[in-house]
Amino acid sequence: MTTTTTRSTYHHGDLRAALVAAGLAMLEAGEPFSLRALARQAGVSPAAPYRHFPDRDALESALAVRGLQDLMVALAPNGQTPATSEEVAELGVRYVRFALARPALFRLMFGRECDDQDDERVRAAAALHDYLATVLGHAYPNADADALATAGWSLAHGLAFLHLDGKLANSDPAAVDARVRAAYAAVLPATTSKPKPAASKQRKTKASKTKPRAKSDTRRKS
User: Fold this and answer.
1) pLDDT in the model for residue 196
2) Which H or E run contains 65?
3) Given this model, what pLDDT does residue 1 score?
4) Structural Rg of the chain based on CA atoms
5) Secondary element (H or E) of residue 20
6) Based on the domain organization, do 34 and 88 belong to the same domain?
7) Do residue 196 and residue 90 come from a single domain?
8) Is 111 exposed, middle or buried (0-12, 13-18, 19+ CB in 10 A)?
């Protein structure tokens, strides 16, 4: 099936995207892959992939970019910006879920130092950090958004690898989710996106305290 898709896209002039898709499929299936293996999969000459990827490192970098893009989609499936500490914690839950669902890709994405010369990969990683900074800045408007983004990302990332490496039990998805939520609750201050009702209640309480005084004044005048 992969071969057919790859050949079809190649004939439409999109060999690079087809090679990335085939590489992801082979990586996540646990199959050894190389540029030559992808060439065979695509039904093209062994030299064809080198027009897009000079070496295996370049191919793996492209896979990492695709992984970062997929992670961004997983973190914000509905496009809404989290506004409370509980919603921020759900980002951590989705981050760890992604790592456990796609372990080979996740390890490839973060398993080695990012190449600063790879503009696409740098942009993809920066987009993730910027998104987290936007989220944390929205939830905690009086805090340092960049510092919180680093802290929040580090917490999710550490939890992801602790579960991947078996240092924390990962067999029960519900238990993993609960552990991530508990970790975020322990680290991030609780917030609420609805402070107005409390202020309204305070005004009502204040008003109720003044009414008896007015009544008492009336009695004195009479």
Assistant:
1) 42
2) helix 56-75
3) 40
4) 26
5) helix 15-28
6) no
7) yes
8) exposed
Measured distance CA(218)–CA(202) in Å, rounded = 26
Residues of the chain with pLDDT under 50: 1-10, 12, 194-222
Is residue 100 located within the same domain as residue 42?
Answer: no
One-letter amino acid for residue 83 of the chain:
A
Q: Both 19 and 64 in a single domain?
A: no
Report pLDDT for 214: 47
Q: What element of type H or E holds 40?
A: helix 35-42
What is the per-residue pLDDT for 102? 97
Same domain, 70 and 151: yes
Identify the domain containing residue 42 by its residue range: 1-54
Number of domains making up the chain: 2
| Same domain, yes or no: 8 and 78 | no
User: For 133-170, how does the pLDDT look when each residue is reduced to its tens digit (9 = 90+)?
Assistant: 999 998 999 889 899 999 999 999 999 999 999 999 99
- pLDDT at position 119: 78
How far apart (Å, rounded) are the C-alpha atoms in residues 39 and 59?
Answer: 12
Same domain, 26 and 97: no
d(CA 117, CA 94): 29
Q: Do residues 150 and 216 share a domain?
A: yes
The CATH number that applies at residue 174 is 1.10.357.10
120, two tokens:
């696409």
What's the CA gap between 54 and 47, in Å, rounded?
10
For residue 37, the model assigns a pLDDT of: 87
Task: Tell me, rounded to whole angstroms, the distance of Cα 33 from its chain centroid.
Answer: 27
